[in-house]
Write a structure and sequence with these properties.
This protein is α/β, with parallel strands linked by helices. Helix content is 52%, strand content 8%. Strands 1-8-7-2-6-3 form a 6-stranded parallel sheet. Helix 10 links the parallel strand 7 and strand 8.
Length: 501
């Protein structure tokens, strides 16, 4: 599980896990902090402490307000949440409480479904309830598809959909049930599916303690870390330490964020490339540090990014500088030279910026374009699994692009692609990935690497790079051709990159 998380095949559901006790402590911790403010939803948390722990109405208020303020804007406004209840009767009462609270507050943009089996009789009113009846006639087999649409955001469950349910847009889970062992792993793992624009997950647990959850996951991780508490004041300490190291300058953070938060109507094709360039000076200063200072900066930056990511899902921050540093730091972290002792080849890298910007600057659905595949040629040597295009000259890339897109690139432009292939073959992480993975997995890992190579060589061939950044069909064709070439050459040459000249 640890390797799958590090290689970004799944998300780490424990990274932003918090118990209600820790959640409440965090809210209390910022009451006297003049730089951090609370919204109405968080001030209501104090009421819960004086009420019975199973008061569904109070938990409903917390869940709905948290979802509205901290979750629903995630994944380009498509994020969904699950409420795990301890019994069918609890699910029924939660459904009624959600309906009442949403109606009372006028939250007509939130849709709720419930999932439980059979018929439940509530002893308080002797009324009988079924899943279909409470879901306005939606049949059981239709529920997963309905939940996947735009109409419904919250799913209340009782012993259903806690295993085997695959909904990548599921971002947050509210747990009101005792979990342990494999059941805890199976339940929380409903969140770990990846999706474009999905960066993290969040768990708010009303019942279980962090130690029990950690014990449950331990057999499936090589290492497991669940933070019980976090100090919001520590953000300012980390911010100060980062500023003092002078790896980045405030002007660079501001310039990056000015482009990052630019209104959609005024965006330009070159904005993303310019944002990458704003990271460059900081990367150069980092490389100039000695090894000890590099490790210190990397650790502090990672700590800041993770702490802000976690805390921002619990409380609102009004300090714009914290948000700007988080935004800049998150992508600087990906651009820094990899620590060969720890870091695998990242699967998201720079490409995450594209989806993250969409998530921050739009309110609707993230529109993705399906890559247009390059035609594959038939194998020529039976049993060798070798295809003709593996043997084709690199110059054919330019020829095929000109023919397909009406471009007029010359053989001189082929040097750009030659450099890409050679640079990739010199990178041991790329070599290791090619030798250890089928081409489908290797292709996922190489997307940020090819994007990075494009940006780095913008000045050498602006025509190709500009077309790559502005035309998705062209980008897909170039990327597919390069990845196939790199993969084929590495697999032929063996386990070690050529010696540097």
């Amino acid at each position: 599980m640890r390797q799958a998380i590090e290689e970004h095949f799944i998300l780490d559901v424990l990274r932003n896990y918090t118990t209600y006790k820790a959640y409440y402590k965090l809210i209390k911790a910022i009451e006297d902090d003049p730089k951090v403010s609370k919204k109405q939803a968080t001030t209501q948390l104090a009421q819960y402490m004086s009420l019975h722990e199973h008061n569904i109405a109070q938990k409903t208020r917390i869940i709905v307000e948290h979802f509205r303020t901290k979750v629903r804007h995630k994944i380009g406004g498509r994020a969904k949440a699950m409420v795990v209840t301890r019994s069918r009767l609890h699910a029924v009462r939660y459904r009624r409480a959600f309906e009442a609270y949403i109606k009372e507050q006028g939250y007509n943009d939130i849709g709720v479904l419930v999932a439980f089996s059979g018929t439940v009789t509530d002893p308080d009113n002797q009324a009988e309830y079924t899943e279909v009846g409470m879901n306005d006639g939606i049949k059981e087999r239709e529920l997963p598809e309905k939940f996947g649409g735009d109409e419904y955001q919250l799913l209340l469950v009782a012993n259903k959909y806690q295993t085997g349910f695959d909904q990548p847009l599921l971002h947050t889970m509210y747990v009101d049930k005792r979990l342990s062992g494999v059941q805890a792993v199976q339940t929380l793992s409903r969140l770990n599916r990846t999706a474009p624009g999905k960066e993290d997950t969040f768990v708010l647990d009303f019942v279980n303690d962090a130690e029990e959850i950690q014990r449950s996951f331990q057999p499936y991780y090589e290492q497991t870390v669940v933070a019980e508490t976090a100090d919001p004041h520590q953000l300012y300490d980390l911010q100060g330490r980062l500023d003092d190291m002078q790896v980045y300058w405030t002007a660079e953070v501001e310039a990056f964020c000015k482009l990052f938060y630019k209104p959609k109507a005024t965006q330009k094709v070159t904005d993303q490339a310019e944002m990458y360039h704003q990271l460059g000076p900081a990367v150069d200063r980092f490389k100039a540090l000695d090894e000890e200072k590099q490790e210190e900066f990397r650790n502090v930056l990672t700590g800041y990014v993770r702490l802000y990511s976690f805390l921002s899902q619990i409380m609102p921050f009004r300090d714009a500088d914290l948000e700007k540093l988080y935004t800049f730091g998150r992508y600087l972290e990906l651009k820094l030279p990899r620590d060969e002792r720890k870091a695998p080849l990242p699967l998201d890298g720079d490409v995450a910026l594209k989806y993250y910007r969409i998530d921050k600057i739009t309110e609707g659905q993230v529109v993705l374009f399906v890559a247009e595949p390059m035609p594959l040629k038939s194998p020529t040597d039976v049993g060798t699994r070798k295809a003709k295009d593996d043997e084709a000259a690199l110059s054919e890339i330019i020829e095929s692009l000109n023919e397909r897109f009406g471009t007029e690139f010359t053989s001189a432009d082929q040097l750009l692609f030659d450099q890409f292939v050679e640079s990739a073959k010199q990178d041991q992480a790329v070599v290791d990935s090619a030798l250890a993975n089928p081409i489908e997995n290797f292709e996922l890992a190489m997307k940020p690497r090819i994007d990075e190579l494009m940006i780095d060589r913008m000045e050498q061939n602006r025509d190709i790079v500009d077309r790559y950044n502005s035309d998705e069909s062209f980008e897909s064709a170039v990327f597919t051709a390069l990845v196939k070439r790199i993969y084929a050459e590495i697999r032929r040459s063996g386990s070690q990159p050529p010696a540097s000249r």
